[in-house]
Every structure is written in C-alpha cells, then in structure tokens.
Amino acid sequence: xxxxxxxxxxxxxxxxxxxxxxxxxxxxxxxxxxxxxxxxxxxxxxxxxxxxxxxxxxxxxxxxxxxxxxxxxxxxxxxxxxxxxxxxxxxxxxxxxxxxxxxxxxxxxxxxxxxxxxxxxxxxxxxxxxxxxxxxxxxxxxxxxxxxxxxxxxxxxxxxxxxxxxxxxxxxxxxxxxxxxxxxxxxxxxxxxxxxxxxxxxxxxxxxxxxxxxxxxxxxxxxxxxxxxxxxxxxxxxxxxxxxxxxxxxxxxxxxxxxxxxxxxxxxxxxxxxxxxx
Amino acid sequence: xxxxxxxxxxxxxxxxxxxxxxxxxxxxxxxxxxxxxxxxxxxxxxxxxxxxxxxxxxxxxxxxxxxxxxxxxxxxxxxxxxxxxxxxxxxxxxxxxxxxxxxxxxxxxxxxxxxxxxxxxxxxxxxxxxxxxxxxxxxxxxxxxxxxxxxxxxxxxxxxxxxxxxxxxxxxxxxxxxxxxxxxxxxxxxxxxxxxxxxxxxxxxxxxxxxxxxxxxxxxxxxxxxxxxxxxxxxxxxxxxxxxxxxxxxxxxxxxxxxxxxxxxxxxxxxxxx
Lengths: 278, 274
Fold this sequence. Notes:
Chain A has 278 residues and is mainly α.
C-alpha cells in the first residue's frame, strides 16, 4: 500500500540535529578525503605534480589501465545485455541458477577472484600448462588482468538492465514482432531506446570499477613496473616507495574518474526517469 | 511457458551466449577453486586452520566486519532517513555522494583514509591526544570496511523509507508516544527487513575487503592482518593449497550469509502477505 505523495518535509528543530549529525559524518567520511587527495597531490606544487604525472611508469600504468578498460567494457556490455534479455524476456528451466551466477562475483572477495584465475591459468593450472606449452602467457601479463577485470565487473550491466527491463515488460517488443520486425530491428528500434540510459550507466559503472580494480588485479598482475602495473597498483607501489605525493597524484586521477561516474549517474538517472514518463 | 514459445526472437542465441559467457567467466574459475580445495587432505586442512596466525586473522576480520556492519546500520539508517524525509540544503549533493565509496577505487580510499586518520593527519591529530589511534590499528580496519560498504544500507533503506507513511508517526505522536517509542515501535519495524539485508550485504563486502584495508591496517601478524591479506600472502609464497583452503572458507561464509539473507527476505515477505 502506498499512501502518499512526496514525504519530503521541512525539518523540525530536533530533525536539524539528525541532519547536522548526518552532514558531519558525510563531511568527515566522504568530503574530507576528496579534499585531502587534491591538496596532497599538489602539496609540492604544480611542477612536481606534472612531473609525477609524466613519469614513465605512471604513463605506462595509465596506458595499461585504459587498455584493460577498453577490452573489458565492450565484452561485458554485449554479454550483459544478452543475459538481461534472456532472463527478462523468457521463462526457462534454470533461470534462477543463471541469475545466481550473474550475482556470484558480488559475493567473491577480489583476492579470491584473483586466486580462482591463478589456479586456472597459472603455470600449474589446468589451462595454464596447456597455454604455457603454446607460448601464451596469461598470468602476470595483461590478458590475466583483463580476465579478472571482466570477472569482477561482469554483474554491472546485467544488474542495471534486469530490473528496468522487468518493469518495462515486453508488450512493445511483442507488438513490433507481430508487425514484422526482425530481431536486429526490434532491438535497435524498440529495446535500445527504452534501456539506453540504464545501459550507459551500466557501462559507466563497469568502466569505473575496471579502472580502479585493485585486489584481484594485484593477485594476477605480478606488479612489474612499467609493464603490468595498473593505476590502482601504482598507488600502492608509490606509497611503498614513500612517494606520498606521487601516490596521491595517481589517486587524484582515479578520484576524478569516480566523481565523473557520480555526475554521469545523476544525469543518466534523470534522463531515464524522463524517458519512462514519456 | 517455455522460452521457445514466446514470439520474441533471440531466445536460443541469448541463452546460449549468456550461459557460455557466465560459464567461462564465473563458473569455470569458481569451480577450479572448489576442486582445488576439495583435493586438500583433512590432515592438511587441520594444519592450516590451527595456525594461530590465521586464526588471529579470522578473528580480527570477523570482529571488524561485524563492527563495520553495525556502524553502517546506524549511520546508514541516519543518512537514509534524513535524505528521504527532510528537505535541506545540500540534500541532493549528499544523496549523490553516498555512492562515492562504490565509485572510488578501494586503494585510493585506503590510502586517503589512512592519511586522514594518521597521527599527524587532518582528523587523526585531534584524536591522538585523546589516546585514540585509528590508522594502523583495529579501528582503522573497521573504518575502512565501514567506508567501502556504506552505500549498501542507505540504498536498500531509501525506497522503504520513501514508502513509509508519516501519518502513523503523527498518529502515535497525537496519542502521546514519546520520541523513542515512535522510533522503536512505529518506524523501526517496517524498516527491519531492508536494514538487515543492507547490513548483511555490507558484512559480506567487509569480510572480503582487501584494497582499502591493507593501506590502513598496519598488517601486523597476529594483530591487524585480515583474512584476504592472508590469502594474498599465501599466494605470494606459492602456497596455493593453503590459499585455496582459506579462500574456500571465505567463499562459503559469504554464500552462507547471503543464503540467510534470502531466507530472511522470504520470511518477511510471507509475514507481510499474511
């Protein structure tokens, strides 16, 4: 039962106490860290910031991180959409199992995820020994990083799409099919416009996580400087080198991506709401 | 209805590719871990799980994760309540910023929190004279876990609070209920399902948290090591068997908690329908 309207009210005097406490927590836990990152990255001036940024290892880390994201996102975009289509448009045996499988990466600690892939593709692993014999190195090289990143980000697109596609139902699509639309036309003309904003948001989430993934990548990358070091691993390496400014410079890049993600989220949710109303 | 009876196209294609993709990406690696763990002999297992260093890590991890989930339950309830109930300047900003812990890479979160709460840090310098050391200690672990799992409770509670009719609270107030009674008797009961689900999700996330924790924990054996770090250390020592055993244990615990959540959800729903 949903009784009313908007419950947003003007706070009473005692409510201001709650709001104040909440705002203080947000300030201490969420706002101050962001300010600290900016201040620390620039604490030794612009010149050092730029030098840290243009450092060869840093540039290599940025390149690798972008490369990993570039390979990860399309894979999860395509297969996430296919999975969402499958579970929201059809009834079939084992659907619950498939959904559980979609959610599994959420329940697995990043380090455990890395270990799973290490056991499978590492030197002593089942696939690993075969790959090794054919001269293909997956672990401690970029393919391994891409694989674990695909694993940890695999739920995002599907999880964004499934609730939305369930709410929207399939009448429009069924009508289109009865009017003679083919599969691709149906998807491009009917489904895609309905889900586009959620799809973009799922992509944004995937990208953000792919760029910042740490635990699982730390297990499979081997952290070779300038070669298999992603930006998130670079943060740790620089901190271990007692180069705090450098670590915060890398952090600032990652924090900017995080803030961009939040901004896009607000924008895309607004668009999606408008699209649903129309 | 079977999928092939629907008028919509693409059932076989999407099911086939979806199953193939999930099998390769999720099922196969997870199965590898389970098989690897199942090959370990009992005597070895006993040997691993009686190591006092591992036992200490398990204790620290569970204690910290439980503390983090409880503080998340309180803080999350507060934040979800003010965001979905009151109109105040900066409400939208706070609402957006709640997702920051999910968007910010865990390594960045760990690095920043440890600097912020270190003895000479912006916040730490005020806590240090009070004898309160956060970074490189147990409290730091709790803080990092609380940070990374903050959005779970807030986001599961928000829709429920929005659906909560203020009329009941007003009625209770007219009938002379005290503020505490209103909270405890009127507001809390309908929020309990979402609150427990959000806290359980936060618990699962905290148990496995690695990136944020290792930056702030100090990682002293027997004192501030967490389970995920132990697994990482085993991997570094090529002790894959020990790593698999502990990883399997962590995986089972997480799945068990999620299963309990599912059962709780079903019970709440059944009661709600009755």
